[in-house]
Design brief:
Strand order of the largest sheet: 7-8-9-10-11-1-2-3-4-5-6-12
CATH class: Mainly Beta
Number of domains: 1
Order of helices and strands: HEEEEEEHEEEEEE
Helix content: 10-25%
Number of helices: 2
Length: 209
């Protein structure tokens, strides 16, 4: 291999490295703008559909869900459970079992679509893999030591809104979320983010604090 060839290869490697850094910076920027957009509103409601499974051939039927985020408070409604938090306490309502597990929010995991998005920490390495003609960016997030091994986001760069998220869990399962609608700045009082046991007299409340 001649010195000239080595120099050309070295230049190409530097170019590819620069492009990789640029892609990561763009990915981080898209994510930061999207998260800042969510946080700029008093509250956000996400209407979504989701599937759970280990691979494309073993996915559950698509279910509808709702998620709300207001400051540190959040609430999700899914087919068989609700998760409600006022930022201090978490109520996990298992509808079919007629049970509510009560725990401290500091001990809980970020297990709602909005909480996952707004809790992406700096330990995740982001890379921009594609932007299509409609301005939809595909971003890969990797964190070998995190609760979520990998997250694939699709973001509408024109609206800085999430389109979908595929979340790969460390147990081998994955959750596929498709956002159908985003609503902002609704009138939600504090009681919306608490579980009212009086409205569910047959539910067994289990305090795990």
């Amino acid at each position: 291999m001649t010195m000239r060839t080595k120099n050309i290869i070295a230049c190409l490697l530097l170019l590819f490295a620069a492009q990789a850094v640029s892609a990561q910076n763009k990915a981080d920027a898209f994510i930061r703008v999207m998260i800042d957009q969510i946080k700029s509103h008093k509250n956000v409601e996400m209407v979504f559909s989701y599937q759970i499974g280990s691979d494309s051939k073993n996915m559950s039927e698509s279910q509808k869900g709702h998620a709300w985020l207001q400051g540190e408070a959040y609430k999700t409604e899914m087919a068989d459970q609700q998760t409600i938090s006022d930022g201090k306490t978490i109520w996990l309502y298992l509808i079919d079992d007629e049970e509510v597990m009560v725990s401290n929010a500091s001990e809980g995991t970020d297990n709602t679509p909005l909480k996952i998005l707004t809790s992406l920490d700096k330990s995740y390495v982001a890379s921009l893999t594609n932007i299509d003609a409609q301005g939809i960016a595909t971003i890969e997030l990797a964190n070998p030591k995190g609760q979520y091994k990998r997250v694939t986001l699709k973001i509408n760069t024109k609206k800085t809104e999430l389109k979908s998220a595929d979340i790969y869990m460390e147990d081998g399962n994955k959750v596929c979320i498709t956002v159908e609608e985003m609503k902002y700045d609704q009138k939600l009082d504090d009681s919306f983010f608490t579980f009212d046991a009086k409205k569910h007299p047959k539910v067994d409340v289990i305090d795990m604090r």
